[in-house]
Amino acid sequence: MSRPDYVFASESVSEGHPDKVCDRISDAILDAFLTEEPEARVACETFATTNRVIIGGEVGLSDKTKLTEYMGRIDAITRACIKDIGYEQDKFHHETVKITNLLHEQSAHIAQGVDAGENKDEGAGDQGIMFGYASDETEALMPAPILYSHAILRRLAEVRKSGAEPTLRPDAKSQLSVRYEGGKPVGVASIVLSTQHADESQTSGDIRAIVEPYIRETLPDGWITPETEWWVNPTGKFVIGGPDGDAGLTGRKIIVDTYGGAAPHGGGAFSGKDPTKVDRSAAYAARYLAKNVVASGMAKRCLIQVSYAIGVSKPLSIYAETYGTGEVPDEAIERAVAQCMDLTPRGIRQHLELNKPIYARTAAYGHFGRAPQADGGFSWERTDLVDALKKAV
Question: Would you please indicate which residues are annotated as catalytic (active-site) residues?
Answer without folding.
Answer: 17, 19-20, 45, 58, 173, 238, 246-247, 252-253, 273, 277, 279
